[in-house]
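Per reviewer request, we include the raw input and output of the structure prediction for the construct analysed in the revised manuscript.
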Amino acid sequence: MFETFCSSSKLINTFNGHMDIVLSIDYSAFGDSQFICSGSNDKTVRVWDVDNNEQIRSFNGHSSYVRYVKFSLYHYHNHHQNVICSSSYDETIRFWDFKDNKQLQIFNRHTECVNGIEFSQFNGGKYLCSGSNDKTIRLWDVETSKSLHVFNGHTSYVWCVGISPLQYNNNNEMNNIGVIGGNGYTICSGSLDKTIRIWDIETTKQFNVFKGHKNIVKN
């Protein structure tokens, strides 16, 4: 970690522990503590205490590379749990409670490697979207563990996904009112097919395709 906002940046901490390349990290604060989670080709998900400069958890449930990690604010605000979500080449999405040191849910409806994952910024992060090498995007209800929608259209691996924080309407006006079950929220996805696509989160219909990249869209 680097100290910034000063005339000269300096290294503060180095976290060692992974045995292979680190593919993803996320940063969050639960209560008064700051944490980093990380996913690696060593098949582990690790949690690091930033203030005390130490690893506090290592989860070994994935059977292949851990592609992406995200802290779940939904679990923290609704169930008082400190939870990480991870996606993997083993075709699963898993949830880990690093306070109680246990695995929670497993989402296993994708049929190939799961790449990008993203929680919704609305409804307290209740919804999760995921992109996969099976060329689909899925929308999940985190509370019920159900796969709500499948989005088809990419012709190759879906590498990254995002969920819009706002709604739109037919007049192209934006607002932040509404919940899933109404109109307006969208998912964005990037793929090995070199395109970026926009999807209606309710109907699964594709709105737009952006073409221009000459290679994979990774982020």
